[in-house]
Amino acid sequence: MTPRKRDAHAEELYQAARARRILKIYGITMEEYEAIKEAQGGFCFLCRRARGATTPLQVDHDHALEGRESVRGLLCGRCNNRLGWAEARLPILLEYLRNPPARKVLK
After folding, report:
1. Residue 75: φ, ψ to 5°
2. CA–CA distance, 97 with 35 (Å, rounded to integer)
3. Which run of H or E residues covers position 2?
4. 72-83: per-residue pLDDT in tens?
5. CA angle 26–47–53, rounded 5-degree value
6. How far apart are CA 52 and CA 37, in angstroms?
7. Three-class DSSP labels, 33-76
8. What's the pLDDT tens digit per position in 25-54?
9. 80/84 Cα distance (integer angstroms)
10. Could you tell me the pTM of the whole model?
């Protein structure tokens, strides 16, 4: 999938809106976003591949917290979705690994 082309003015408006959204939702500036990205080596923290070239890296956050305290790092969309899935199912996964249902049957 190729990134959508924008003229310079449209790109400027897009980036300004993005900066306002990140500040409003997560309480971090674009300078802080870029500093987090730099601290992660410019990649998605989990897969270490995605650089946010076609779509920007997403701000991963803890939904139990608000604002800047909730920010954990930057992830690509795929890893962010997978992390959300894993976080919601982690207790079930751990129970399955510790007490596999087959053990009750195959004694």
Report:
1. -130, 155
2. 38
3. none
4. 999 999 999 999
5. 65
6. 10
7. HHHHHHHCCCCCCCCCCCCCCCCCCEEEECCCCCHHHHEEEEEC
8. 999 999 999 999 999 999 999 999 888 778
9. 6
10. 0.77
